[in-house]
Amino acid sequence: MGRTSWFAAIILGISLSRLSLADGPASDPPARTQQVQQAVERAIGYLQEESDAWWTTRQCAACHHLPMPLWALIEAERQGYSIDEQFLADTLESLLGSKDNLLASRIFPNPAAPPDPRPQGRGLNMGLPFLAVAARSRPAPVEGQQESLNLIAEEIVRKQQPDGSWEFFPTLRRPPINESQITDVAWIIMALQGETGPDSPTSRREALSRAIAWFDAAKSSELHQEKVLRLLVAIRSGKPLDTMKTAIEGLLALQREDGGWSQTVPDWKSDAFATGQTLYVLSLAGFTAERPEIQRAMDFLVATQLPDGSWPMISRSTPDGSPGSSKLLTPINCASSSWATLALARLTPKRP
Q1: CA 301/CA 288 separation, integer angstroms
Q2: Rounded Cα gap, residues 140 and 149, in angstroms
Q3: Cβ contacts of residue 262 below 8 Å, gap of 6+?
Q4: Helix intervals (H) in the chain
Q5: CB atoms near residue 314 (< 10 Å)
Q6: CA distance 38 to 185
Q7: What is the pLDDT of residue 320?
Q8: Phi and psi (nearest 5°) for 43?
Q9: Which of 46, 58, 214, 328 has the greatest number of CB atoms lying within 10 Å of its CB?
């Protein structure tokens, strides 16, 4: 804790001058603790209802509607919020309780089915690493769930390319859920880390090592999510905070006057996906709700939440990431609401 506080103090001194709102428009009144907690509680209700409806009607474990909300709900529960424990247990069991359940989720290749002739059939279904990260956020998976997580890890290793990456199809990507090859590999690394202990197969540990080497050497673009996920991987890997100083400064410098962050699209406004994701990672780096930058971001999320507990987004259904024309916005709304919940629950717990 001493190291984190020392580092956060350095970042505060460096960043406050460039983040001052003295010359900008007046901001909304700071969100009080009770307001933030109420926002989290509304978001929990939305995520449970939306995820349940998606799974019941579609039987598809999509990244945005099952793994991301599950991760957010598990974190909220850890921070003292009440969730529907039966829903959480039933959903995890229906997805990971057995090999048959995993196959029924439609994100794991069924060996009895004909090979997928489409280009993406060669790649890794990104629902798998998302699901593994979410499941591992809850301790001690039961026996059937552990078997499914092992199958996911084996599939990840099987689909790895010789250079340490996984095949990526730019014309088929779905930003911001899978925005670039770097963001995909970030999720895969986090999934492999959860399944790679001292007693894990050598192939798994070697795959993780190759993936990290590729990830560290890959040239980053200007995508905001790449910056955030690189920092998240570094934190989860246990790297010293002082090695992340430049990356954290860079994120702080991108904060908008309204307190939020925006996705890397020209002229886009702040949104809950980029803000929640950035805020969550900064919270892991030791930033607390007392920090002015963090308080402004929390104010932004509280002010922009919809009455149903979700956060509004616009379509990014086009492969180049520019505004799309999708009429179904619940996937990106659900993903953004998950990130916002992860961040707000960590920063404003209901118990110490």
Answers
A1: 16
A2: 12
A3: 224, 256, 268, 269, 270, 271, 274
A4: 2-19, 33-58, 67-78, 85-96, 99-104, 127-136, 143-158, 181-194, 202-217, 224-236, 245-253, 272-284, 292-304, 330-347
A5: 16
A6: 35
A7: 72
A8: -65, -40
A9: 46
pLDDT at 88: 95
With a CB cutoff of 8 Å and minimum separation 6, the contacts of 42 are 305, 307, 308, 309
For residue 5, the model assigns a pLDDT of 42
The CB density around residue 222, as the number of other CB atoms within 10 Å, is: 7
249's CB contacts (< 8 A; 6+ apart) are: 11, 14, 15
DSSP string, 174-202: BTTTB-SHHHHHHHHHHHHHHT--TTS-H
Structure tokens given for 21: 């709102």
Q: What is the DSSP string of 61-89?
A: --TTTTHHHHHHHHHHHHTT----HHHHH
DSSP state of 306: -
> Cβ–Cβ contacts within 10 Å for residue 34, how many?
9
CA distance 229 to 55: 27
Q: H helices within 222-268, ranges in order? A: 224-236, 245-253
What phi and psi values does residue 202 have, to the nearest 5 degrees? Answer: -60, -40
In this prediction, residue 324 carries a pLDDT of 80
Note the pTM of the prediction, 2 decimals. 0.89
Peptide bond into 25 cis (omega under 30): no
- What is the Cα–Cα distance from 347 to 298, expressed in whole angstroms? 9
- Residue 200's CB is within 10 A of a number of other CB atoms, namely 14
Distance (Å, rounded) from C-alpha 338 to C-alpha 43? 8
345/79 Cα distance (integer angstroms): 6
* Look-up of token digits 């949104």: 271
Residue 195 and residue 153 in contact, taking contact as beta carbons nearer than 8 Å: yes
C-alpha to C-alpha distances, 187 to 98, 128, 256, 306, nearest whole angstrom: 23, 10, 26, 28
Tokens encoding 286: 């030791």
For residue 334, give the amino acid letter.
C
